[in-house]
Amino acid sequence: MLTTDFVPGAPAWIELGSPEVVAAAEFYGRVLGWEYDGGLFRRYGSTVAAHVPLGAGAWTVHFAVADTGSAGPLRRLTDPQGAEFGVWRARDGAGLGAVSTPGALTWLELHTPAPEAAADFYRSVFAWEIQTIPGAPGLFCRPAGTGAGRLFGAVVEDSSAYWLPYFEVADPDGAAGAAEVAVEPYEVGGVGRIAVLADPFGARFGVMRSVTS
C-alpha cells in the first residue's frame, strides 16, 4: 500500500493538469470531496494533489529520488513507451499529506504496450522490486528494500502508455454517477470495488473502495 514514508522510488506527489482550474476544482470537489487552495487540492486539510495549467487533462505521478538532476524539486520525464511521469526531490518538500485514505491516492497502474520492457526501465531508474502474484494480471511494483505490504501499483498491458491513478472512495458507484465512466464499477476479489472515470478535460483516473478501507 501507499504510505507517506517517501523512500526512494515511492510515489510522492501527483499533479492534475487541466486548462480550467475552477471547473476542475468543482468536479473533484463533487466526486472526491476535495477543496482547492492556491494550487493544491486538499481533503480534510491534507494535500492530496496539485494543479498545474495544461491544455488538456492529464495526471502526472512523481516518484521520490535523492536528486532530480535539475535545479528544481520536480522534473517531468517520459518513459520509452511514451508514458509521462515525474521525479520529486524529497529534501525540497513534504510530499503528499495523505494517501490510502478517503479522497487520497491509493493505487497506481502503468498501462503500456510493453509491460516487461516498461518494468525493466523503471527498475533501472528507481531500483523497484517487481513481482508477479498468482492469479492476478500484471507485474506488481514496490520500492527497493521494502516488503510485500509496500506494493503501490501494477504494470498492465494496454495499447497506449499512461499512468492511471486510483483514489480511495467510500462509494465507487456514487462517484461513477457524478462523472464520465470509462469502466463501470466492478468487484476485484481480495482488492475491492473499482471504476475508471474521466474528468471534464479528459484526464482518466480510478476510484476504489479497498477491502481494508
TrEMBL record:
InterPro entries: Anthracycline_SecMetBiosynth (IPR052164), Glyas_Bleomycin-R_OHBP_Dase (IPR029068). Coiled coil: none annotated. Gene3D superfamilies: 2,3-Dihydroxybiphenyl 1,2-Dioxygenase, domain 1. PANTHER family: GB|AAF24581.1, GLYOXALASE-RELATED. This is VOC domain-containing protein. It comes from Lentzea atacamensis.
